[in-house]
Structures are given as structure tokens and as C-alpha cells.
Write a structure and sequence with these properties.
Layout (H helix, E strand, L loop, with lengths): L3 H11 L1 H29 L3 H13 L14 H4 L11 H12 L4 H14 L4 H19 L3 H8 L8 H45 L4 H10 L2 H8 L4 H9 L3 H14 L6 H17 L8
Length: 291
Amino acid sequence: MKQPLEILKEKALKYAGEAFEGHREQIFESLKVIGQCGALARQSGLLALDEAAELWEEESGLADGDSIEPGKYDEDTLELSLSERDVPLKELLIYEIRSLADAMDWDKVEEDTLAWAGKNGYSEYEWYIVYIYLTGAGSILKGVQARYYYLTFRVMVPGPWQEDYDRYCHTLVEKQQEKELADTQERVNNEFETETAIKTAFHRIFGDMDPEEMRYIIHELDYKTLAAGTAFAAEAVRNRFLENMEKRQRDLVIEEWFYRRNNSYHLSDILEAMDRMMILAGLTGKMEEIA
């Protein structure tokens, strides 16, 4: 027995020529919106797609209840607005994206999509759009990157339009990659700033802390936190901690460094340990000096 996706593919292939000949721009717009959904899912998770679907429902007058509050959607979601775009079969698109956000049984989604398409009496070229939405949503669920989805879909493109398809998809994927790279660079920069701020504060607090205050903090912390917090601190700061530790604690910290410093520490472990140590420094009043 044929699976729903196989049946849908056969229908889509049957009308592929008609679809590209008379509705090429709508096909490209369908590909674009699916690609944007994929980018949003990779950046913010599948639940972010629920906000996009809610926005579409409101735009299409399909949603009940109050209107959308200004500022409810972030910039990436707002870029998915369909109000001024020639996107076909919006109701079906909303269903597919809602299905991703709601973590529905995907085999059931495929069956329902095929049944829905037949019930609504879609015209020939619209079967091609149905195939785009269903296979595109399935690719998002699997975490497939846009460029691989477009390559997979290329076998559905009739020969006379493959050159146009390649040119369009190349431009689309390139823009998505540029945006993802810019977003990644921004996140990295923010992480660098956070790391620098924490390490700078850590060195300022403990670089000249009174030995009695330092011994109080050391006494209140376990050796694993002390080891993680000082593993990548400046040598002078590390030595000040070692000088104020009891022998047993110092031996444990050095042993922890030996086994973990080169292989096991994650940046998050180090920064979390530094934060804990600075919180204790605040109890001594030392934090007031960097306010």
C-alpha cells in the first residue's frame, strides 16, 4: 500500500510542468517561506514557529479571540508576515507549521494533509504546493538545512525550469546563510563580552583582596568550584588563592587542575564558578569596589 507522501509526490509530479509554467512565482514564494521557517526553527526552536503560525492566523482572519499585541513577536518572526506576499494555500501552510510546534505524530500529519487536499478539491498545480509544504515541514522537523532540502526537491523540477530554480535557490540559500552567519557572529560577540566582563571583575576583586577575606571565601567553597573558578585565571590570582588554602584543599585543587584543565572544563563551568566566588565576595563587601 502506498504511503501518503508517495501518493502526494505522484500527484505533484503529474502537474509539475503546469505548476512551473503558470505559477512559478508562487512556487518560489512557497519555497522561501518554508526556508524562513527552517531558519527560525534552527535559531529559536520549533516552538518559535507557533508564534509565526499565530501571526498568520490573525492576518488571515482565521484566529479567534483578541488581536495580537504590538511587540509580541520578535524581528525574525515578523519577517515571516504573509500579509503582503503571494503565498498560496495559507491555511494548509499554517496547519503544517502548527503541527511542527505541537509535536504531532508526523505519519498522521501526512495522512491528514493528503485527505485535506482531496477534500478541498485543490486544482492541479496546487498539489505541487501541498508537496512543498509537507516535505518542507518534514525537513524542518528533521533539522535538515535549507540547502539540502532544495537539492532534494530539485528532482521534482521539470527540465525547462531547472536553471531558473537553481538560480533562485542559490540566491535564497546564500541570503539565509549570510543571515545565520551574522546571527552567529552576534551571539559569539555577546558571549565574548560576557566572558570578558566576568573575568575582568574576577581579577579586580581577587587580585588585591585582603588575605583574611580570601580565606573566608576559600573556606566556604568546595575544591571543585575553586579549581574551576581559578583554572584559567591569571597566574598571580591563582597563586594568591593557593597561598591562602590549607594544604589538603590546595592538593585537591591542583589535582583537579591536572585532570580537568586541558580536557574537561567547559567555559560555562568556569564562568559559573567565577560567579559563585564573586557572590561570596559580595558578602565581604568587596564587590562594592567595582560597582
